[in-house]
Amino acid sequence: MNDMESALAERYGAWNWHDQRPDLASVFLESSKTHDALAWLRDSEGYRHLSFATAIDNIERNVFTLTYTLRNHEKRHSLIVHCDIDRGKPLMDSIHLLWGQAWTYQREMKEWFGIDFPGSPRVDEEFVLEGWAGPPMMRRDFDSLAYSDATYAERPGRVTHDPAAHMKAELYPEVAE
Amino acid sequence: MKEKSKPAPLANEGLPPEERGLFCDAAPREYAPAQGILEDFYNWARSQSLWVLGFGTGCGAIELRPLMTSRFDMYRFGIQPRPTPRQSSVFVIGGYASVKTLKRIVRSYEQMMGPKFVVALGSCTINGGMYWDSYNTIKRIDQYIPVDVYIAGCMPRPEALLAGFLELKKIIREGKAEGQNEYARNFDWYKANQKNVIKDWNMPDYNW
To answer: Is the Cβ–Cβ distance between B138 and B197 less than 8 Å?
Structure first.
């Protein structure tokens, strides 16, 4: 167990530290402690750069896993902080006061996953879509094909071939049968 | 003598009341061709001078760039790009169109002066192509604006584009490029289709 791992576990109850590469590790935190832990990592441990923030829809466990990627440029080390939030109540602390650019990621997560970040600037405005009336489209229970079929007109006559069988019939008709 | 009845003006309901007076509220009209040989001359002139709206709406527009180079040299066919819809006569739909782009496509198409023609390149414009199950990409462009020539492929090579342009020239010269008139004739149908997918309609009903 390294110093950082034990410090995070002791202070914030972090678990499941995993060294993916010498310069990349990931760790899990409680969502209620994530904001404080990120502030500590930024101010005391040199992870001053938030390089990415996104969400993963873990529908099997009924949670959204939020993922924050931090970078310590002095140590040349990146740390991915994961935390789960309830899928039925998708609400998370905003970190836009820690990193100014975070509001963009949070606005993206609001539009794509329906995760709210109260207080985050312009979080309720449209991000990529315009006039989107459907449910958040990156949720895994959103059926893209059904939505597309119901919304957009289709040209009749479109057929889909199994690529392997089709190419076999095209290239080697004598053995395709 | 009874006055010929005029169609009701467009409502322009997408606009705030104070802006409605700034935009046209009349639907487009069909083009009335000139007499006989004069119209033939016009069509010949139109076909020899195709000005393309330089607006890449999708990934297929990357194939327009080689056309401008000396290897393919579209200028020898009288084709050249223009920076604004007001000066263009050909709109090249460059592949897939998301709903957000469709809004700009409709706006640009309607702003173009007649006679105007549409070339749809790529499989996506025909039947959705690889975006057949996408939540935000329309599957056929001809539901929303009329198309004169399709160029199939994902994406079509510059040679195919040139063949498409030559086909367009042929039908213009024969007086068969009827897309613009089709749009005027079926204006309500096109408008209903457009408004069916563009949920936040905040522009005039006819963007002339």
So the answer is: yes
